[in-house]
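U., I forgot to send this yesterday:
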Amino acid sequence: MKAARTARRAVAPREADVGRRGALGALAALPLAALGACAPFVQRAAPRRIVVVGGGYGGATAARYAKTWGGDSVDVTLVERDPAFVSCPLSNLVLGGSRTIADITVSYDALARRGVHIVHDTASAVDASERRVRLARGDALAYDRLILSPGIDFFFDRIRGLDTPAARAAFLHAWQAGPQTTGLRTRLEAMPTAAYSRSRFHARRIAARRAPTSARARSRGISAARSRAARS
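Result:
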């Protein structure tokens, strides 16, 4: 009997110690349980919406670095009418024959791979109060920041004789690289060599007539000196 009571006294502290450890473990787990319960309510801020109108040098560069520097915190959309970028400054090399139009044409795939959304459409209006860009196809793009870089265009309706599509097609200015560049290059290639030489000759004569009097006199003086030197 005495041995049984001694055994119960020996077991009781051990059971009490196990109970205390279990209670301490449950208390330690409470903060983790509370954190797990709150986790679904923690939300990341929505990315800022940046809309860039125009995919030329300015617009494409702005879209690229806005996404590169902003990362996942920004959502960048580029609105561009043309399917690819054609360099206007380098188009003179096409006119001169040292490059082709394909050499100066770059697609927008590289921007798309960086995470920029490409929308091939025309921006028809901007609603600054609502922060929306309306597209020609009818829908609109909401933005938090707007970058306008549409490039140049002509007011053909203000130039007499160029207010029709046929007249504009016949007038190859080539200030906008693309079909205008290749069309003007084709005309240059088709020009007869004699006509090209005459045009250069007439251009030199016109330039000489427009030169200042002192410059023409100096030119005649140099020519006379050269003639005397040749005779002597």
